[in-house]
Amino acid sequence: MIDIVSATRCSEAEFWAESALGQSLRRLDFDGRLRPRVSFENRRGLPEVYNSALTAPDARDMLVFVHDDVWLEDLFLADRVAQGLRAYDVIGLAGNRRQSEQHVSWNYLGTALVWDDLAHLSGIIAHGPQPFGPVNCFGAVPADCELLDGVFLAANRRTLLSSAVAFDPQFDFHFYDIDFCRTARRQGLRLGTWPISVTHQSGGAFGSAEWARLYPLYAHKWAGAGAPSLESDGGP
């Protein structure tokens, strides 16, 4: 049994009729193992939404944290998630086999947002406004990872709770995923990519004003533990 956790600025009616995730969940409605847990007309940060689902009394054993602009194309989604969470404590669609003091996301190094070498990356994910978009292959899947892309994360709820791993509310829409992954790895949890078919409509908002505002908070939190310095521009 799996909770699909997401947040959307859409009304409930708009979400089910217009959003990529809403339309996908309607298509997957045949599978009773999947239960949507969506925060409609949301103004809270993603960590607050995700943590509320994590600690909810009726939460299911497996949780999927996913953006509302994702087309879930895999008809066997429940099976894929269950299989992945037998191999790992946390799974994602794209990730990095290493983490260094330069990483500001799973794929970018430094504030100049330089792509890490593909030799360190793993994942296959499509992008585009419509389902079944062009595919980006970052590296072989599955693979043990240190960092995962926050567009889709699945985890064993009891493992997160027993390890005291949660999302940090200070990172409302940026850095929440890399911070979560670093926290999980610090607690000894196993992270990895897993093959699940989706299309993501957005490429993210790295480097935006809000991203830049939160960057010093992230760097300060992880100072001395492999976080990038404030002056770093990164590099391969």
- Rg for CA atoms: 17 Å
Low-confidence stretches: 227-236
- Under CATH at level 1, the class stands as Alpha Beta
Q: Using the alpha-carbon principal axes, give the shape.
A: globular
Residue share in helices? 25-40%
- CATH homologous superfamily label: Spore Coat Polysaccharide Biosynthesis Protein SpsA, Chain A
Strand order of the largest sheet: 2-1-3-13-5-14-11
Largest sheet descriptor: 7 strands, mixed
Question: What structural class results from the helix and strand content?
Answer: alpha/beta
Tally of alpha and pi helices? 7
> Could you please say which CATH topology applies here?
Spore Coat Polysaccharide Biosynthesis Protein SpsA, Chain A
What is the second-level CATH architecture? Alpha-Beta Complex
Describe the structure.
- With 236 residues, this protein is of the alpha/beta class.
- The protein has a single domain, classed as Spore Coat Polysaccharide Biosynthesis Protein SpsA, Chain A, CATH 3.90.550.
- It contains seven helices and 15 strands.
- It has helices spanning 12-18, 20-27, 46-55, 77-87, 157-162, 176-186, 209-221, and strands at residues 2-7, 34-39, 62-66, 70-72, 90-92, 94-96, 108-109, 114-115, 121-127, 135-139, 143-145, 147-148, 152-156, 191-193, 198-200.
- The strands form three sheets. It has a seven-stranded mixed sheet, sandwiched between helices. Strands 4, 6, 9, 10, 12 and 15 form a six-stranded mixed sheet that branches.
- Helix 1 (12-18) crosses helix 2 (20-27).
- The model is unreliable at 227-236 (pLDDT under 50).
